[in-house]
């Protein structure tokens, strides 16, 4: 078996959306699983819509997800001369021809097809005419001389055998009248020249696969193995849209998802390995097989993604979560404010609080929000629930507790012993003291373990916050 070469070939007309990210992941995993290569091709032939910003967004999105490619990215537009050369080969073999049909004639063909209930297609009027008859006042397009009888069959690694009657596939345009290559032609020439052995992409390209197979045969080239994976749908079964989560990978980064968790979630959209849900990257590479990709559309579920991300957060090393925060903060709407507050002292406190913080957060954004108590200045703001906890009775408990804490050694164990001793002496449950304590220290009704909070904030800051609220 020859070495496997896959490719990911996005059009740089916007961000790297979640469906494209999964396609890239499947190509990457298949290449790594088989010991092959994955190449990156930027299909920038649409000059009006392709932008440098979109190219950067796609490359950054792949890098953030941890999807690497072999060699330098290939830019399709730069290869236009090679695409034209391939058409010259087809013309020389008689497998392509010049066509001078006008836009008006093509409109008339479409209208007639509509009236007769046929799919609109070119009627082949220049297929067998002598090019010498072509008008001199305009340049022709060049069309594929496609087979008109029989079938084009795709042996797809996911969809199985897919058959297209050739009568339903017309003589598609290879070169426009201005000499620019069409997408269909460019894809075939590039895949061939790049040595691509396996084309793995969305099943919305299945009809393209038939047309591209005809171009391969017209050029006398081997057709790559195809694998068309089902699209991703929303939870309601409709095609994935922005309201479902069809956002750019950068949006998931900014919402605080970890790249490893998003990768794990994406691999399970349409592929399975028994009942296993959580995979290390190496397990994904070891187990990935196109035979286990299903044919039905996968459903995107934010709740599942959030739950999985929570698992990854709890399992992550504290240092890795700090690195994730560093990567995230510059992209947040209040980045400048957050960065200004991230002093070395605050960073050290954040690191100390991490074991308690990560147990309660499903995203990095939520973790940062829960860590807000570290960054706020005195007197700290209280949310509604915290205010409700600081009743006159609660404040009185804090006032009587203060001397015990002032005398205590500043460790989680020692402060806990002081608070328990106070609650016992006062004849109240621990929660009756711990909840007002939490509200006064964090401004919220939920937080990491309260004795960890005392340790993280330190003696001076903790006692200052308690004095601000004590009755």
Count of separate DSSP helical elements:
21
The CATH architecture of the largest domain: 3-Layer(aba) Sandwich
Oligomer: single chain
Strand order of the largest sheet: 1-2-3
CATH class of the largest domain: Alpha Beta
How many distinct domains? Answer: 4
Query: What is the number of strand segments?
Result: 12
Q: CATH fold name of the largest domain, please?
A: Rossmann fold
Would you identify the regions where 5 or more consecutive residues have pLDDT less than 50?
none
Mean pLDDT: 93
Percent of residues in helices comes to 40-55%
Q: State which percent range the strand residues make up.
A: 5-15%
Structural write-up:
The structure is a single chain. With 471 residues, the chain is mostly helical. It folds into four domains: 158 residues, 3-Layer(aba) Sandwich (Rossmann fold); 107 residues, Alpha-Beta Complex (Glutamyl-tRNA Synthetase, domain 3), CATH 3.90.800; 60 residues; 86 residues, Arc Repressor Mutant, subunit A. It has a three-stranded parallel sheet with strand order 1-2-3. A hairpin with a 3-residue loop joins strand 6 and strand 7. Helix 17 packs antiparallel against helix 21. The mean pLDDT is 93.
């Amino acid at each position: 078996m020859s070495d496997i070469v896959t490719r990911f070939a996005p059009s740089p007309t916007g961000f790297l959306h979640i469906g494209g990210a999964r396609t890239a992941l499947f190509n990457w995993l298949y290449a790594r699983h088989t010991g092959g290569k994955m190449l990156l091709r930027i299909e920038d032939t649409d000059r009006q819509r392709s932008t440098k910003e979109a190219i950067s967004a796609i490359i950054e999105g792949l890098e953030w997800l941890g999807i690497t490619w072999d060699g330098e990215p290939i830019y399709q537009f730069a290869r236009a001369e090679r695409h034209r050369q391939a058409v010259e080969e087809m013309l020389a073999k008689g497998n392509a021809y010049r066509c001078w049909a006008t836009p008006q004639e093509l409109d008339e063909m479409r209208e007639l097809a509509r009236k007769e209930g046929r799919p609109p297609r070119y009627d082949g009027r220049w297929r067998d005419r002598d090019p010498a008859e072509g008008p001199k006042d305009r340049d022709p397009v060049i069309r594929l001389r496609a087979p008109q009888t029989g079938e084009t069959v795709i042996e797809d690694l996911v969809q199985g055998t897919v058959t297209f009657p050739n009568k339903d596939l017309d003589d598609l345009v290879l070169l426009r009248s201005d000499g620019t290559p069409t997408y269909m032609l460019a894809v075939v020439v590039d895949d061939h020249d790049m040595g691509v052995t396996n084309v793995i992409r969305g099943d919305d390209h299945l009809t393209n696969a038939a047309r591209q197979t005809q171009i391969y045969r017209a050029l006398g080239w081997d057709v790559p193995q195809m694998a068309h994976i089902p699209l991703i749908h929303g939870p309601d079964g409709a095609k994935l849209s922005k309201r479902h989560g069809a956002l750019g990978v950068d949006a998931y980064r900014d919402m605080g998802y970890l790249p490893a968790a998003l990768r794990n979630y994406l691999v399970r959209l349409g592929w399975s390995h028994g009942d296993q849900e959580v995979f290390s990257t190496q397990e994904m590479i070891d187990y990935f097989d196109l035979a286990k990709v299903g044919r039905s559309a996968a459903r995107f579920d934010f709740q599942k993604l959030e739950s999985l991300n929570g698992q990854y957060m709890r399992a992550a090393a504290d240092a890795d979560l700090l690195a994730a925060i560093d990567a995230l903060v510059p992209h947040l709407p209040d980045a400048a404010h957050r960065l200004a507050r991230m002093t070395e002292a605050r960073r050290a406190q954040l690191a100390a609080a991490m074991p308690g913080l990560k147990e309660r957060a499903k995203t990095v954004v939520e973790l940062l929000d829960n860590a807000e108590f570290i960054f706020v200045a005195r007197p700290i703001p209280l949310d509604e629930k915290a205010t409700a906890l600081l009743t006159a009775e609660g404040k009185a408990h804090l006032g009587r507790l203060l001397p015990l804490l002032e005398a205590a050694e500043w460790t989680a164990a020692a402060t806990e012993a002081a608070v328990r001793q106070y609650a016992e002496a006062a004849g109240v449950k621990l929660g009756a003291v711990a909840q007002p304590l939490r509200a006064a220290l964090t401004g919220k009704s939920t937080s990491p373990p309260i004795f960890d909070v005392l340790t993280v904030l330190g003696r001076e800051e903790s006692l200052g916050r308690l004095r601000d609220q004590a009755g």
